[in-house]
Fold this protein.
Amino acid sequence: MASAVRVLPVLIAVSVGVLAFKGVDIYEAVAQAVESAEAPPPETALTAGVGDRDNGSAAGAEAAALESAAAPRADVCLPSLDYAAETGISEQEILVLRSLADRRKALDERETGLETREQSAAAAEQRLADQIADLKKVESEVQTLLTAMDTKRDERMTALVKTYEAMKPKDAAEIFDGMEDTILLDIAKSMKSASLASVMSLMQPKRAEALTKMLVSLAKPPASLNTPAQAPA
């Protein structure tokens, strides 16, 4: 009985060892099968480059699939926003509001153009007013200058008349006979009557007669005053 009990543990130990060795063999066999499955077959002249092309085509197909999945499809329409439902107004009212907005924009642009033209017109009017003021200033200066010239001329004429009045009548008559009509008339009409009579008595008769006619013409009124005004129709 004791010997039977000792033999049983020995059998159990031997069985466990056998099972362990078999497990190692099974593991090695499976590992070799996996390595043989993963290793590419030997390359021949017929199969040269087939694996690379297959890998490249597989990678290209995978990349194309990813791009096609990422890119949006043209035939798929995005949902449009319904402004009418969101704002609570109809599509026709939206069109009217848009039309009014465009009209408002056009009116604003027109108003801006009118303001620009008004500003340009105001600037031109101001320049014209400045020019008119300058012209009036120049006119006033010219008028002042003319008045001063007339005054100076009258002073010279007065001095000249006094000179002829102070001369001897015979000498003055000789000068008057050869003087131009315009100058002679200006001097004669300003001389005193007594001095002018003494000079004219010594002048040539024809010349004295011409001077008399010129003095008489000064006393006559202008022809426009003698013509009666035409009665209104």
